[in-house]
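Bench notes, afternoon.
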Amino acid sequence: MAVQGTGSRYEEVAVGLIGGESFVRRMVSVARQSSTPGLRVEPAVYRHESEAPQLARQVMERVDVLLFAGPLPYDLTMAKGDLSVPAVFVPPGSAALHAALVRATSAFDPTRISVDSVTEQDVEDCYAEVSLPVQAVRVQPYQEELEPADYLAFHSKLFKAGRTVGAVTTIAGVAESLEADGVPTVLMRPSTQTLRETLRAAILTGSGARLSRSRIAIVIAQVPDSALPTRTSPAQYWYQELKLSLHHELLHDARRMDAIVLPHDQTSFLVITTLGSLRTITGDLETAPFLARVRETLNLDLQVGIGLGRSTLEAENNAYRAVAMAAADTGDLAYLVGSDDLVLKLPAESDAEATAAPVADETRDLETLRMLVQSLDETGDEARLVDAEQVAGILGVTLRTARRTLRGLVDSGLAWPMPATRAARKVGRPPMVYQLLDERLKNSGS
């Protein structure tokens, strides 16, 4: 079916909204603000998440894609069997937790609460950013095998034992039961921006599913292990800034293929588009998206996996396979996995010469790190932040060699690339700053 636009005809895209009344009302409001021609929503409101599978099957014959209020109703529905249409859900995240904490502050002490459906790392980062102690906060991360009753028991037991004074939950049914039991409760609601981005992802998924020959393309852009910390702290601000910079660079290319970029987990982003749009930006699948640009701007070697499929689930599964291949390969390549065992290797640039990846000399890199740290100690510099110019001066080498040395330290997991701070920026291209990991010297026994 098509609907008439201003001088054009547009394919109608129908999105089924599965959630509580508050969620459905908010999502309908967001949908009304969407500029997508031909968008239609089919609301299906439940009182408890256990009703989601039945509601989904009632509306799926009238829609192109299902959009669930969160991972719990989505998983409950998927556990009942295959759907005839693709489905997505609104991810819980730190933005929603921030808003919940603001509302919780006026109701109870937010430093003695229980929180469900988010990771402990998200909670630690959120509390660190608002300068609140997190030691007395109890967290139950989302787990597919848990049911609403399990989350309810988690909050209730802690409150009755006097270990918490309130609860923050993402599950409407759990919030209702807790309030009925006299437990002060705040329902964690996704931000409007998150709703808008998830709706856009649903529209892309649904529009692709309408055409039997079209395919969904999902790209996983992953930060390599060598750029990750070996130990955590309450707030790793440098890494948060790196993620923001990476998100910005991904958006630059994503806009050119009308794609949606979503944070996937602590180390990766999800880019959702169609095969047609992907072909446009990759020169008909001749070059990899994002690799060259992110290396040029952030000096970061991404691991990129691309999955194709006739459904979101198939494309996502193929993307996981592809990014695992990219992580295992030492070459400068992205991997694409599609149906019928299709596997393609996409180089960063079409005219790039194939070169063998340099073999890291761990002993040499450790010795280089030790020399740099000793020199910084002599000057009283405890920040362990250096750029190529400093390294060239310390080691007595050219700038080109210093840059190659720093990249070697990154490849060996002895340094992390960091975005340049505003104060460090000069006229022209800003210098790339690296965090030297002197604790690795102790771990190596040097």
